[in-house]
Amino acid sequence: MSDSGPVLSVSGLTKIYRRRGLRLPGQPRPADLVAVDSVSFDLAAGEIIGIAGESGSGKSTVVKCVARLIAADEGEVVLGGVNLMSLKGSELRAARKSLQVVFQDPYSSLNPRLQIGAAIREAGLAHGIDGAREPRFVNDLLDRVRLPSSYAARVPRDLSGGQRQRVAIARALAPNPQIVIADEAVSALDVSVQTEIVNLFLDLRDQTGVSIIFVSHQLPVLSALADRLIVMKSGRIVESGETKKVLRAPEDDYTRALLAAYPDPHKALRRRGLSAEGANDE
Ligand SMILES: Nc1ncnc2c1ncn2[C@@H]1O[C@H](COP(=O)(O)OP(=O)(O)OP(=O)(O)O)[C@@H](O)[C@H]1O
């Protein structure tokens, strides 16, 4: 981690989903939903932050607002000294180069007809990366996500779920971002494949110094991966801190309840063969 201040600083982030549509006679107007309520956190260079919480707690909405995929109602997201909330058009596109997102379902995010090599090249070209047309560009990225270069000629249906997620990660890395946001990026995968992808994220952080925000409802996954943990409930942060500390001595009842689903998240990790610090250090 660097001493030079956060790479990303989120403060007072608030998102309200307005309930539109017809009001039925005699029925009250459905209330607006405050999906994210005054969320603040910093992300350091090379840090991995995990965002935990049950379904509907607002995790995805936070990261969608941070990546400016949806507009927040209030708050600031400062990246490289610039508040992303104030950017539009070409400035916003330029900022997005630094902040890439990997989603849960790699199949829907990949064009089924496009060969893997072309899909990776396209991600580089979309951000004006020099050399993106060179074969080496695609080969290097395939290598970083540990896929053989021969996969460049395949199409998504030829790949397993885990391999497709590796391609999605390669596309996210194509513009050489400072931050990768992974939104439930391993949730749809088998446990053994989850382990491989979690280890890949850890290696990528170690090799490139990229910062990662990793959203998951699976505490064992976050235990293996995250330096720091943010626990969300009903749109608010109820607890945050060093992952090991939060999981070993949770201060909030809600965190304790989440943990109760995993009698021993560290043991669960050892079963998965994950070797991150905190998983084995008991
Ligand atoms: N586009 C939308 N319009 C209206 N309400 C929404 C929309 N997207 C999410 N919500 C609601 O906002 C709340 C937070 O949803 P969000 O998806 O951020 O939670 P989450 O913690 O990521 O849960 P999950 O893992 O199930 O997606 C939920 O009550 C959800 O139903």
TrEMBL record:
GO MF annotations in UniProt: ATP binding; ATP hydrolysis activity
Superkingdom in the source lineage: Bacteria
Domain ABC transporter: start-end pairs: 8-259
Gene Ontology terms: biological process: transmembrane transport
Keyword ATP-binding: yes
Pfam families, sorted: ABC_tran
Keywords associated with the record: ATP-binding, Nucleotide-binding, Transport
SUPFAM superfamilies referenced in this protein's UniProt entry, alphabetically: P-loop containing nucleoside triphosphate hydrolases (SSF52540)
Keyword Phosphoprotein attributed: no
Family: Belongs to the ABC transporter superfamily.
Name of this protein: ABC-type glutathione transport system ATPase component
Naturally occurring in which organism (per UniProt): Alpinimonas psychrophila
